[in-house]
Amino acid sequence: MQTTLSEDARQLPRAEEAESILRSCVHCGFCNATCPTYQLLGDELDGPRGRIYLIKQVLEGNEVTRKTQEHLDRCLSCRNCETTCPSGVDYHNLLDIGRAVVDAAVPRPLGQRLLREGLRGVLPNPGLFKGLVSSGQVFRALLPNTLQVKLPRNVYPAKPRPTTRHTRQVLMLEGCVQPSLSPNTNAAAARVLDRLGISVTTNREAGCCGAVDYHLDAQAAGLERARRNIDAWWPSIESGAEAIVQTASGCGAFIKEYGHLLRTDPAYADKAKRVSALAKDLVEVLRGEPLDKLGVHSDQRLAFHCPCTLQHAQKLGGAVEAILTNLGFNLTSVPNSHLCCGSAGTYSLTQPELSKQLRDNKLNALESEHPDVIVTANIGCQSHLNGAGRTPVKHWIELIEAALP
After folding, report:
1. What CATH number is associated with residue 42?
2. In whole angstroms, what is the distance from residue 297 CA to residue 295 CA?
3. Could you point out which of 64, 102, 292, 370 has its C-alpha 20 to 30 Å from the C-alpha of 282?
4. What is the pLDDT of residues 322-365, one digit of tens each?
């Protein structure tokens, strides 16, 4: 695609990157075939090709409008289009560049600003979030349905974690909302890894991965969180930690971007690249281990929802399914498994109507062969799908841990 950036756009820190991505797009439209919002709305501007055209117009100096912002807001950032694209267009980075320019030019309505600032204030703060969730559980019956469905239906307490006793050690990101919504997930991961001779250590100074801020109009704040995490992890990395493990694929996808996003920061570029290289989704660690040592045997019937951040961002589609199948779990087939469930970080709160449609479509597909339970690899998807009150939804590592002898 030919493009000529405006003089203002050429002053942007990522101008060269944006121009390169735009020129890689051949405007074929294959991306629209797998775009969830294009399938729902049928509007060219609510598909990747149309959004790329909008960003091109903005960077060429054309008028930026509220409608432009709305079309970019509706994107789930699921990156399904990147999996489909024959030209390898780096869509998500172009979208981040375009959103930053548009958000700087178009003030949001007060209600949207308050919602986004509220989410940025609450979600990355585990203590505050836990307090709000606990209060919500007490007063659930008094809350509107839109808030009730966001509260966990069942919270299973974390089982005791094993002591650090093995030579092999990995760091683990605790996450922001997962300790409150699904506290046993990381404990289950630690117990399974311990059986395989790997000890998990945590660093309380490492907080939110930065994705919440970065994707809610505060990219600089998101990158600052990334820097703080790098500083928190660095002593353990120097001491030989072999990986930084995430049980939430959304966090993992963003941490793997640290190296790219901080590549021009002279103080952090090399460290960020190292952290991204060490970042591993839990499945990446387990699939390289002798899982027969676990002694797990189960014929439980389940459906696996592969999060977009696992299959499209981290390119790990099929990895969890292979482990579960090898351990004896009975996996059902899931039609259109490439499509997003509508969670997409905070999308279910900023775009509730579209998100609900996508959730219901996804649940219909997951339940098509009547599984006993649905499992996934990301707390956002887990909470979003479970909020419908249909088939129970858990993290896949919890099923493995529960089947340990």
Report:
1. 1.10.1060.10
2. 6
3. 370
4. 999 999 999 999 999 999 999 999 999 999 999 999 999 999 99
Q: How far apart are CA 364 and CA 231, in angstroms?
A: 44
Domain count, the chain: 2
Give the number of other CB atoms < 10 A from CB of residue 297.
10
Angle at CA 142, nearest 5°, toward 137 and 145? Answer: 85
In a domain, 148, yes or no: no
CB atoms under 10 Å from CB of 395, counted, come to 25
Sign of CA dihedral 72, 76, 77, 81: negative
Sign of the four-CA dihedral 19, 20, 26, 28: negative
User: Which residues contact residue 70 at a Cβ distance below 8 angstroms, ignoring those fewer than 6 apart?
Assistant: none
Q: Has residue 71 been placed in a domain?
A: yes
Pair of tokens at residue 260: 């790219």
Beta-carbon contacts of residue 134 (< 8 Å; ≥ 6 apart) = 180
Residue 389: give the domain boundaries.
Answer: 295-402
CATH number for position 325: 3.40.50.1860
Token readout for 35 is 């775009």
What pLDDT is attached to residue 156? 78
Q: What is the DSSP string of 351-362?
A: SHHHHHHHHHHH
Residue 159 belongs to some domain of the structure: no
Evaluate whether 347 touches 290 at the Cβ level (below 8 Å).
no
Angle at the Cα of 152 (from 144 to 352), degrees rounded to 5? 50
Q: Which of 78, 105, 132 is at the close of a domain?
A: 105
